[in-house]
Amino acid sequence: MSSQKANPQPINDDNALLELILASRKFGGELVKNWRIILVFLAVFITLSLIQKKITKATYKADLSFMVNEDEGSKLSGLSTVLEDIGFGLGGTSSEYNLEKIMELMRSKRILYAALMERITVKGKEDFIANHMIEVYNLHKVWAKKKPKIKDLWFVHDSIPDFTIEENTAISMLYKMIIEDSDGGPLLKSEILDMPAIMTLTLTTRNEEFAYKTVQAIYEKLGGFYIEKTTEKQRETYELISTEADSIKAVLLSKEFDLANFEDRNQSLVGNRAILNKARLEREVFILNSLYAEAVVNEEVAKFTLSKKIPFIQAIDIPTAPLKKIQISFTKAIIKGFIAGLLLAMLFLIGRRVYRDAIESVSEKESID
Question: Could you give the percent of the chain with pLDDT greater than 70?
Answer without folding.
Answer: 81
